[in-house]
Amino acid sequence: MIRVLIVDDHPMFRDGLRQLLNDDDFVVVGEAGDGAEALAVLSSHPADVVVMDLHMPRMDGITAITRIRAAFPATQVLVLSTYDTDGDVIPAMSAGAIGYLLKDVPRDDLRDAVRAAARGETTLSRTAAGRLVDHVHSPELLKPREHELLRLVASGATNKEAAAALFVSEATVKAYLLRIYDRLGARDRASAVAEGYKRGLLG
Q1: Which of the residues bear the PTM 4-aspartylphosphate (predicted)?
Q2: What residues does each domain of the chain span?
């Protein structure tokens, strides 16, 4: 019997997962709405596999994965997320997740992934696997020109000023910014800069 903890900030989604994992192979030992709550539940209800979202309030999934793997090394974390950007997949796997799937995964595939996680085997969505391969071949999170642009943005440069500094068009700057947002899992310039500092890309 595989003991499972479900961690997601949407109660209805947790209910659906509980029903999905209600068979002879699994027992859901608890639920949590964020990473901090997950750690508290695990302290009293050990689990073999944590099925966890990444974008949650209070304590996000990346932080939770790191702390769960440190405090409960026998517990595997399988990410089940809506997002599969570089800024989600790479940090999650680096933090110690055993697998990464999207929330539209077929039911049987999710059950198989939980079984695999309990055995210590990795399961990845196609896009997550592709991003990991790209990361291995190009381990720098940002390309040099993207890194340079992020530094300019952090210093307060407008698109026009950044274009002049990089000797490119404003359209190229906008394209670079979109790639930066995708790689860092950012929504806008401010969150990209914040992620840049968080990940040690700016200093």
Answers
A1: 53
A2: 2-136, 144-198
Mean pLDDT of 42-61: 94
CB 118 within 8 A of CB 2: yes
CB crowding 70-88: b at 16 or more within 10 Å, else e: eebeebbbbbbbeebbbbb
Q: Quickly state the pLDDT bin for 22 (edges 50, 70, 90).
A: confident
Report whether 54 contacts 92 (CB < 8 A): yes
Q: How open is the CA angle 178-97-6, to the nearest 5 degrees?
A: 100
Tokens matching residue 64: 């939770």
Same topology, domains 2-136 and 144-198? Answer is no
- Residues 179 and 196: their CA atoms lie apart, in Å, by 13
pLDDT at 90: 83
**105 or 87, higher pLDDT:** 105
Is the Cα dihedral 200, 130, 48, 27 positive or negative? positive
Rounded to whole angstroms, how far apart are CA atoms 95 and 80?
15
**What's the confidence (pLDDT) of residue 163?**
92
CATH superfamily of 2-136: Response regulator (3.40.50.2300)
